[in-house]
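Cross-check.
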Amino acid sequence: MLDRGLKVYHSSICPWVHEYSPEIDKRTRPYLKSANNSWRVDETYIKVKREWKY
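Predicted model, tokenized:
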């Protein structure tokens, strides 16, 4: 909004987020990949030749 010359405070945006986020989630959910793998912050796994390596 600032790029367009409008000053908007976060307190103005928050009600929009609460109102429209369920609709956005409903419409985008079918296009997202399912996350079946479990990830931990302290572990690093990479895929090498179609096999997961620690």
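Helices lie at 10-28. The first strand starts at residue 46 and ends at 48. Passed to J.P. for a second look.
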